[in-house]
């Protein structure tokens, strides 16, 4: 381990030893499930003390551990997206891709998935069959079998038709850690941001928006593999889902104890998403993605990484969006299109509930 | 592979090639989540065609597959038990033990768990903390870390406070398959049946029953290990949860293409459970267990297996309850206390919804 990496790990260790945050709320709110600041607070104040162990501590997309001499990655997600079907996908496809992606950005090749269904009594069998078929197709596209499952049924009025929980296991092909991030590194994103969250919002139909938008849900293992085999200097990958790109980058900056400077003009955003965000007073930086990759790369290889991403069908709109600096540690700063600069924090509250 | 094993596998293969059953219902009912006949029909008619692959096909408690040269077991379960806390445990402890047990009866040592929470908005943070702490303690008792997790929040009125989905990964220490079961083998159970389901029913308080009953929820890896290391002739283990002992034995008889003869007088049932069953018109054979083991054992080692189980704190009430015969294949026959004989089928309907 080089001195910089050791120093970062030591600082992270110090931070872990600090007294835990206390939750100020008495009751769970939707913010606690939004993947932003409140989710992080709950994890630190409640789940860590209750469940804490060395595997859980790094708070990455997947846990990585040894299994009989093999390095495994494991990740789980519950899906409560509303509506169950939306432009570009449905809960079944989303549940497969989301878990596959958490493994992929951890440098692992997904080898098996499990699926647990909580079904509302009265859901048409045909609908359940359609979501299951969608899972089957997504699993096949991702090249990973759904190896085991479970079904529970709850009374009418509960569960909104269907909740799905998928868990994935993968073989780690390359260990990636935020601790390897260094000042000077470049930050890349594989395409336009905010597509999934905005597609869900429009699909709910309670906005008077008529926008032609589709979720970007896609399996990212192939894209990760293309990047990792072509470019040696990839430090770390992330999958900016709930909480959006902003939350993911703040988490990275905090984990790596660095600063990330973002160039607003470089952020790829579809005009439809930008327009809808403006009308609704939302910031695309906080809107969820389900088929996008964030990569932090050695500056000497940033162009090669960009070319590798753009050469893949899922990365045609890839862009270099920022740079890592040493100071101020743990912060993300956005250089705006107007030439100003502002601090980007994690998502606060829950502007878009039930998006995944 | 010996000729008998090959023959069984061939017959199973033939059965798999038969046209799939069709579901007669239009909509999902609670029976589809009860772990009995309707659950099996839905799995065969809906999930197999949609998700089907070689791993899913055997329908065991856990999938077993190769991961970089290591044999892994993987199992998942959603928990929707009502009430969340009951005599003998709560949803957190149940969710850990249930998944640990599915791995243990597959001959695997659990090495990592994941936990996904679907939380109802408004659940007191204190309650969530208590269930998480209970999971943490259960995981520690089972010697397996909760390596990764996820939390989603749904609106008030959904999710009854909390649903939990746990998934476990284990290292296979001994491959166990129903195909190794032979006529003459003995069937053992590690203790009294029906305790969990009846404890939940009483805890709901809508029955006028005043019975002192507790769930038997417990981690079974230690008991499995004791049995497997002490007795070479263990063919197969099962964890008779939803659907009860009856459903588990019918599944075994069908998988192994054998008949199982049960001796009603040998079945260990607590007097309180027997009494409550009689009042409610239930059969303890169909009431769920959450800390019991079914073992099919070479007849020459049945006594040794019984002694091994009884020597463990979780197996003090173990009993030899039946014997495997060749005919009629796929059936379980109960020799009643009165000297009669009746066919035992899988659980039909859902007399006890939301027990796990």
Mean pLDDT of chain A: 92
Assembly of the depicted chains: homodimer
Shape of chain A: globular
CATH C-level category of the largest domain in chain A? Alpha Beta
**Unreliable segments of 5+ consecutive residues of chain A:** none
Q: What is the fold named in CATH at topology level of the largest domain in chain A? A: Phosphoribosyl-aminoimidazole Synthetase, Chain A, domain 2
Describe this structure in words.
The first copy, chain A, is an alpha+beta fold and 356 residues long. Chain A has two domains: 108 residues, 60s Ribosomal Protein L30, Chain: A; 167 residues, Phosphoribosyl-aminoimidazole Synthetase, Chain A, domain 2, CATH 3.90.650. Helices cover 32% and strands 24% of the residues of chain A. Chain A contains nine helices and 14 strands. In chain A, the strands form three sheets. Chain A has a seven-stranded mixed beta sheet, with helices on both faces. Chain A has a five-stranded mixed beta sheet with strand order 1-2-7-5-6, covered by helices on one side. In chain A, strands 3-4 form a two-stranded antiparallel sheet. In chain A, β1 and β2 form a beta hairpin. In chain A, α3 runs parallel beside α6 and α6 packs antiparallel against α9. The longest helix of chain A is centred in the middle third of the chain and has 18 residues. Chain A is globular. Chains A and B meet through α2, β1, β2, β5 and α4 of A and α2, β1, β2, β5 and α4 of B.
